[in-house]
Specification:
CATH superfamily of the largest domain in chain A: P-loop containing nucleotide triphosphate hydrolases
Helix content of chain A: 25-40%
Oligomer: heterodimer
Largest interface: A-B, 29 and 23 residues
Structural class of chain B: mainly alpha
Radius of gyration of chain A: 22 Å
Strand content of chain B: under 5%
Order of helices and strands of chain A: EEEHEEHEHHHEHEHEEHEHEEHEH
Number of domains of chain B: 1
Shape of chain A: elongated
Number of strands of chain A: 14
Radius of gyration of chain B: 19 Å
Largest sheet of chain B: none
């Protein structure tokens, strides 16, 4: 099973809390690719990641990593995973160098020289205490630790949130380098959709604990489009094709997956009338799909 | 596991030194009173040992450092066992140190056998307190468990004091303690202090090990948000 073509497979994962629920979360990442995991704050991204890392136990569903059932070999699998958390969980009074020595004792493939090299590249002072590092530096330390044990799957939970654009761009470059130089798959959660658009090969959108879409990025963004039309050209059969519909005083807009069908129905219902089509951004897709679920519109 | 034990001690190096200094200060204060007795050893040892144990758990939860450890290729039972071993490794030399200090200062019995019995009793008492404290902390997390633990410790003290009060009253009334207790204490008094010390130490080990097993169960089921 070690030869599975998927680095991570989540199937039917559900977890119920008092005020929130993960409902039948399913997606999978082929080896060697970056998957962006996007959603609003509180959509269920971190909870899903915590289930993947076994910090939280799912009520049902399965998680397979490198083709292996996670529950059967959690220790062996964790040795092959790098995890970067949004809140940099370190001992604040200890130095970056001590943190590296400490973490290195637990991973079979930890490379101390490489760790020193990453710190140097990221300009993190190894002698500085963690509490003296800025948020960006802590993320870099976290990444240096995760990369130094040669992970085959790198799980990043909102690593770029709260960072300035220069540091964010620097980190995104590192992720791209990793895919070229190492046998690494990256699962990358964020609510910053521009980061996803830059580097992700696959996108999974989550909202209110449900997966809205999980697809190759180019198929998603090329397949969906945004249509804008006059309010005089409204009809229930067009509405049935629209997701996240918004109405103004003069016109309405929505996103459609099957643009050709929309065009056919529109021309048949309103001959001679016109509508506008724009290319969809991930931001817009996320906002519209999240909105459509909130308003319980048919998609 | 060794790396986790070393981490516990390294992370708390400075605070541990401060706790020990506070303990020595307490010993010094007690040495100025005439009737301090074994209390002059028990109090500092409990304060230092308990502070180390709770601080050690707190350091893991502060800034979610426990999440870092849980992402390591480690079984949760190793994390729990390392904590128990680290607390024992700090507490035992500390207790023996204060015990050795207490002898020339007159806090401890002059008889070696009785002095060892006193040492064993202190170790058992600490093992009981920590054995309540650690499973709760591993179940709820140190920060949430703190309030509950205060009640547990107060409860243990209240239970001890109430027991003492009841037996004093029974003694004063002339009827004395119940028959089974008389028989039990007669039986104990016939045993040599060394044998009682051994029983106390074995009881301490047994309680501590059982507590560790309970803590492992709790921690394996715990969800970390």
């Amino acid at each position: 099973m070690a030869g599975s073509e998927y680095a991570l497979e989540v199937q039917g994962l559900s977890k119920r809390f008092e005020r929130f629920e993960l409902k039948d979360v399913s997606f999978r990442i082929p080896r060697g690719y970056i998957m962006g995991f996007a959603g609003r704050n509180g959509a269920g991204k971190t909870t899903t990641i915590k289930c993947i890392l076994d910090l939280v136990k799912g009520d049902s569903g399965s998680i397979r990593i490198f083709g292996e059932d996670y529950a059967n070999n959690p220790i062996g699998i964790r040795d092959r995973i790098g995890y970067v958390s949004e809140d940099s969980p370190f001992y604040e009074d200890m130095t970056a160098a001590w943190t590296g020595r400490f973490v290195g004792k637990f991973y079979s493939r930890f490379d101390s020289r490489q760790f020193a090299g990453w710190l140097d590249r990221f300009q993190v002072d190894p002698g500085k205490k963690v509490k003296e590092l800025s948020r960006g530096m802590k993320v870099k330390l976290s990444l240096a630790l995760a990369l130094s044990h040669h992970p085959e799957l790198l799980i990043l939970d909102e690593p770029t949130s709260g960072l300035d654009p220069v540091v964010r761009s620097e980190l995104l470059e590192v992720f791209l380098e990793l895919l070229q130089d190492e046998n690494c798959t990256i699962f990358f959660s964020s609510h910053i959709s521009s980061d996803m658009e830059k580097i992700a090969d696959y996108l999974t959108l989550i909202d209110n604990g449900r997966i809205l879409l999980s697809e190759e990025k180019h198929k998603l963004l090329d397949g969906w489009s945004i249509v804008k039309a006059d309010n005089r050209c409204k009809s229930p059969e067009l509405d049935a094709l629209l997701c996240g519909k918004k109405e103004g005083d003069f016109g309405y807009s929505g996103i459609v997956q099957d643009g050709a069908e929309f065009r056919r129905r529109f021309a048949a219902r309103f001959p001679g009338a016109e509508y506008r089509t724009d290319r969809l951004t991930l931001d817009e897709l996320l906002v519209r799909l999240s909105g459509s679920q909130r308003e319980e519109l048919v998609c | 596991m060794l790396a986790l034990i070393a981490k516990d001690i390294t992370v708390q190096k400075r605070s541990l030194l401060l706790f020990v200094l506070a303990g020595l200060f307490m010993t010094f204060v007690f040495s100025m009173t005439d009737e301090a007795g074994i209390t002059a050893m028990v109090m500092p040892v409990f304060v230092v040992g308990y502070s180390y144990a709770s601080r050690s758990l707190y350091e893991d939860e502060k800034n979610h450092a426990l999440r870092l450890i849980l992402a390591f290729p480690l079984a949760r039972k190793q994390i729990v066992r390392a904590k128990y071993v680290s607390i024992a490794l700090v507490f035992l030399p500390l207790t023996v140190g204060f015990w050795l200090l207490g002898r020339p200062l007159g806090f401890i019995s002059d008889s070696w056998e009785l002095a060892v019995l006193q040492l064993s009793a202190v170790i058992l008492a600490f093992a009981i307190v920590v054995s309540f404290f650690l499973p709760i902390a591993f179940k709820l997390g140190m920060i949430r468990a703190q309030t509950l633990q205060r009640f547990v410790i107060l409860g243990l003290f209240a239970f001890g004091m109430a027991g003492g009060y009841v037996f004093t009253r029974l003694g004063n009334n002339g009827s004395g303690p119940p028959e089974w207790l008389k028989n039990f204490s007669n039986h104990i008094s016939r045993l040599s202090p060394s044998r009682v010390s051994l029983v106390l130490l074995l009881a301490a080990v047994l309680i501590y090990v059982l507590s560790a097993q309970l803590a492992v169960r709790f921690f394996e089921r715990r969800e970390l948000f």
